Amino acid sequence: MTQFNNVTVIKQANVYDGGKVTSRVIQFADGSRKTLGIMLPGEYTFDTAAAELMEIIAGELEVQLPDTELWQAIKGGESFNVPANAIFKLKIHTLVDYCCSYFD
């Protein structure tokens, strides 16, 4: 899917790590939400409340998911899932354009 129709966009950005990670929330009529964002090169640690699907639109990164020491390489066109109430780490190698879906 290359576009979302009939959505509400929250204008204020979510800004993390001094502006190196930003996103905007889009809300759908059924109450579901996603964020669209950009991550600049660097290393980041995030925590989740809800389960998430991270779709990487463009860029290259490595992810370390909960309960593993392994780093998995991810590039544009690929995705990964993160469980609810978890901590995961990212190593961003090139600018990453992403879409995150939440499953409450």
From TrEMBL:
Keywords: Glycosyltransferase, Transferase. InterPro entries: Ppnp, RmlC-like_jellyroll, RmlC_Cupin_sf. It comes from the Bacteria. It catalyses: adenosine + phosphate = alpha-D-ribose 1-phosphate + adenine; xanthosine + phosphate = alpha-D-ribose 1-phosphate + xanthine; uridine + phosphate = alpha-D-ribose 1-phosphate + uracil; cytidine + phosphate = cytosine + alpha-D-ribose 1-phosphate. The keyword Transferase applies. Its EC number is 2.4.2.1, 2.4.2.2. SUPFAM superfamilies: RmlC-like cupins. Belongs to the nucleoside phosphorylase PpnP family. Catalyzes the phosphorolysis of diverse nucleosides, yielding D-ribose 1-phosphate and the respective free bases. Can use uridine, adenosine, guanosine, cytidine, thymidine, inosine and xanthosine as substrates. Also catalyzes the reverse reactions. This is Pyrimidine/purine nucleoside phosphorylase. It comes from Oceanisphaera ostreae.
